[in-house]
Specification:
The chain has 2 domains: 130 residues, Phosphorylase Kinase, domain 1, CATH 3.30.200.20; 252 residues, Orthogonal Bundle (Transferase(Phosphotransferase), domain 1). Helix content is 30%, strand content 15%. It is built from 14 helices and 11 strands. The strands form 3 sheets. Strands 1-2-3-4-6-5 form a 6-stranded antiparallel beta barrel. A hairpin with a 6-residue loop joins strand 5 and strand 6.
Amino acid sequence: MGLLEAASEFKGAGPSSGPDRAGEWVFSPEAAGGKVTTVVATPGQGPDRPQEVSYTDIKVIGNGSFGVVYQARLIDSQEMVAIKKVLQDKRFKNRELQIMRKLDHCNIVRLRYFFYSSGEKKDEVYLNLVLDFVPETVYRVARHFNKAKTTIPIIYVKVYMYQLFRSLAYIHSQGVCHRDIKPQNLLVDPETAILKLCDFGSAKQLVRGEPNVSYICSRYYRAPELIFGATDYTSNIDIWSAGCVLAELLLGQPIFPGDSGVDQLVEIIKVLGTPTREQIREMNPNYTEFKFPQIKAHPWTKVFKPRTPPEAISLCSRLLEYTPVTRLSPLEACAHAFFDELRQPSTRLPSGRDLPLLFNFSPVELSIQPQLNSTLIPPHARAQTSPASHGTYERYPTPCPTTLLCLILVLSFIFSSGVDILKYSHL
């Protein structure tokens, strides 16, 4: 999410208007060598009690439109942390900071401290979020297996997706929608297989009746209601994105690629078929009068490789639904049969290590859908609570060229997107 777009949805006063401002960097990290940096920072959780925090070994590990991410080592504990530095508009409070301060879950990257620093330009202020450092992402893990011309072992798919759904259940119970679920935002420790959801730069506390921007979420993972321009969407957009992540891990490639909204809708319709008028109404009532060419749904079993576990296909089909309210809730997904193996006491990681803690549900989690608790917590784990074969497969076939071209023309008209029809001249 770009800084200008993010700022357009921010509300409230900026850091310079009150006691939120917690400290300044004593020097710029770009100039860091082996020096020790000491700042006055506020703890991420709990009372606002600024304290000195010192760190060293600073290096850039990521950057983008949001700002820069550094890796550093805390002097006191010798732990590695990530420091996300973003330009702060003084007129507004930072939504990412406000959300992260209220979140506390084992599958969400933890905000340890935050502080402000001055930029090179006059009156330029940066917000610095000191976060847990986790070395890998699901994206890089999957890419590693893809380069080896294999797919990620199914046990990892189960462990990663289960933890993702736990994190979503928690944030949704707090009224927060992440709005950018994708493999790059799923941090993983390759040794323990612990997953932590990160990057709440696009996240928002959704309030019924208040409009939201529809151009949110990264391409390939955008729910159809977003592509249709809905502004009254719910946290079910995160469920669609999670379904896309699951499908991608099973396929070894994105399930709904596309360079535009039209491209992506075409790919979605090739799998799910043309949405009914009622489904379109549920996504965005403004489009119910349009006549869409009829394309039949493609069988889910033919979308995936032949030896894909049936339970995985079943779960995908329950997540990737046109109608937002019919998608599984995060905890319903956790209770799905696809994850039954994780509930067996003998299950281990391929390395022989124990699974990460999967059933240490908090009272908050247990109160979300209590009717599921007996399924979610296997008997052996009650104390925790306070390779697929590859082979060839056929990608789903292209529907009738004439019908597909009609669909593309209708979608192009709806979105006035100026889609280059010549790119489909091979149909």
